Amino acid sequence: MEASREGYGRGLLKAAEKDPNVVALEADLGKSTKSRTVKEAFPERWVSCGITEQNMMVMAAGLASSGKVAFASTFAIFTERAFEQIRNCVCRMKMNVKIIGSHAGLMTGTDGSSAQAIEDMAIYRTLPGMVVLCPADSVEAEKATLALAKHKGPAYMRLTRDKTPILFDDKYIFEIGKGKIMREGKDATIVACGPLVSIALEAAGFLAKENISLEVINMSTIKPLDSALILKSAKKTKRVITAEDHSIIGGLGGAVAELLAENPGAKLVRHGVQDTFGESGQPEELYDKYGLSVKHLIQRIKKDL
Amino acid sequence: MDFASLAKELRKDILVMLNKAGAGHPGGSLSEIDMLSVLYFGGILNVNPKKPSDPDRDRFILSKGHASPGMYAVLARKGYFPSKELDGFRKINRLLQGHTDTKVPGVEMSAGSLGMGLSFGNGVAYAGKLDKKSYKVWVMVGDGECQEGMVWEAAENTTFHKLDNIVVIVDKNGIQNDDYVAVTSNIEPLTERWRSFGFKIMEIDGHDFNEIVPAFEKAKKEKGPWCIIAKTVKGKGVSFMENNPKWHGAAPNDEELKKALEELR
Question: Could you give the C-alpha distances from B232 to A75, A147, B171, B235, B236, in angstroms and in order?
Fold first, then answer.
């Protein structure tokens, strides 16, 4: 078990070691986002912006305009404070800025609803040219960070505060825009991202005992969506359920709904935060109350699919 | 260099451009243009229109991106793009966007949303320090723009990171979109605000070349970060546009253009 932000910290440090143009900007949450790995190794390439998220995003754009690969990290919710700056100054100029939103989703826990970003993927997905990632574990987060350092252009990656099971090993090859079938099945497809991938795998293992065969796809790139993989699986199973620690509006569920609306043939259920804010509580308590736990996912699959 | 004659020609370009577009921002273009003339034609900015991406170039960032006609008039005359492009300002399938845009050679930052220029400049200046470059980063902001909280986030970062390669110019023309700055919100004491954030201050008349030239030369030579507060007149050079909020964002019609051009003969 490890939080995906730990993988980001390792990946960022490796990226900074490999490429002298990698810089990390932080808005006073470096201990939490794990960007401080760069501060220790390359203090001059760690840009402390203080609590100035709007300034940070545009400063990152300025650095990128002069050849730097700028990683700007803060909590997912506080990146949203600079949405217009990200739109106008990062994406419009196609700047090589990587926005890292840690502590995303209800999994953020006891800090309460102000910190639980459940709309970040939805809003960033609307920006032209923006890549949106949500790794399933810390290994994938590390590899995704290295991929982002090589990718030219703007990107947003959301990370989790809490520990989640490790699903991948060192041999795993991460590619932006590619989903991965984690388990093959024929009765229904779970398209999941982030912490919901391990929960989906658990649900699939449980339902296998009842002779329900579930295909589980890790869709760690929300944009550009791996449409071919989803449609292929949907054609086979005719039933798709999306699963995410994010609002069912506009995120992974929204993206898959758009895809299946234009390519009909499979029933779709969107499993996630049902258009409501969260509250303080332990992550597992919140997942239970707001319907994201294994138990709820199993119920949902049985009832709606 | 005869800056007065040059600026007069640029003012004409601005007005014709706006008239053809039927929309745009004359007031802030006319208030900034004397200073832009000195920056680009007075040997202040080390830039080469043939190498607009030269990594060693000085940067000029127009944060008040609505004053694009002034910027475009200067860039065209400097040779960044053919002057016939000025006819296409704000028109579809043409180069010159309503607000300054990096599609246009010589434009460093796509602007149009206020408050962002100094943060962008901070990033460019920080990169210059990392790469041991000697370029300077000039950022022009409006006084109304200083109402944006983000300007002050940026200012605190400029001095925190010791970005002595930054020069801020405030085009203090006293008018914003709706009305006079003084009746819209409070930005005073503006000079003291910039000073208190750690900037080295010069106060000049932004239309007096005898004040603009030495101030810019000093800021070019000596370490900053500088903030040059330039008192200007919005709509400067056209009597009926001067100091009138109506001309923040309205283009002259044919009759008004004729009258304005006569004044600038």
Answer: 42, 49, 6, 9, 8
